[in-house]
Amino acid sequence: MKHILVLLTLVLFASCSSDDTPKDYTSLNEEEIKAYITANNLTAQRSNSGLYYVIDEPGIGENPISTDRVKVSYKGYYTNGTVFDESDDEGISFFLQNVISGWAEGLTYFQEGGSGKLLIPSHLAYGSNDYNNIPGGSVLIFDIELVYVNYVTENDQQINSYLSANNLEAQKTDSGLYYIIDEPGDGAQVTLQDEVSLTYKGYFTNEEVFDESASSVNFNLATLIPGFAEGLTKFKEGGSGTLFIPSHLAYGNSAIGGLPAGSVLIFDVEVISVN
């Protein structure tokens, strides 16, 4: 798939140069971008790095930062209009630290759901090197839509799809946690300062089990992932139910102990005792 190679191989940039002294295209690229902006009646902003960008829709979600993972739908072309790369409508996902610097910077000017253009000079892309049929010194233009930032929106959709497919009704907290109370319990209410004894089974939305207690285990809520700790406070001693934990309340963008990055974690829990 060409688009993955085009966007995710900045690390190859330095190692692909020839013995020739690299040509500085900065001034030529600047003139080319300005001419394109004028010819197409665009209102563009210029950053200190030399990147130009056009915001058609700013979006209403969060702005990505350099460590974030994003999903983007895009079309890449030269100033002559020739398309060299294009995603499907769904877009592709990647981490900003793995893309060319013009992309990594440019996407931070949009919020989730935003769209516009990035006009990237070659020193923020592949420099003076030919790369993957992109000529050295090329200005790259991208029409982009920032579909998601991290996994928050996707996880919410995944949880709701799971609930719908299994005819379940869950409550949602302000943090994004979903939970179902089968038995509220009749003992002490669990708080974030408590230690609890419980049994649990953890599985993904495809119902593959990744962890399960053989018997009751003890946890201090302060040591648990935020979604698990918050979820347990919805129960009293003797209570049971299910927690649906989006990745931002679990392990986020990191793959941990066999759990893929961005995973929704589901736990069936029963609170045996409190403190």
Automatic annotation (TrEMBL):
Gene3D superfamilies the UniProt entry points to: 3.10.50.40
Leading EC class: isomerase
Catalytic function, reaction form: [protein]-peptidylproline (omega=180) = [protein]-peptidylproline (omega=0)
EC code(s) of this entry: 5.2.1.8
GO molecular function term, any single one: peptidyl-prolyl cis-trans isomerase activity
Record carries keyword Transmembrane helix: no
Top-rank taxon: Bacteria
Keyword entries, A-Z: Isomerase, Rotamase
One Pfam family matching this protein: FKBP_C
Annotated ranges, domain PPIase FKBP-type: 67-150, 193-275
Matches recorded under SUPFAM superfamilies: FKBP-like
Record family assignment: Belongs to the FKBP-type PPIase family.
Record protein name field: Peptidyl-prolyl cis-trans isomerase
Protein's organism: Algibacter mikhailovii
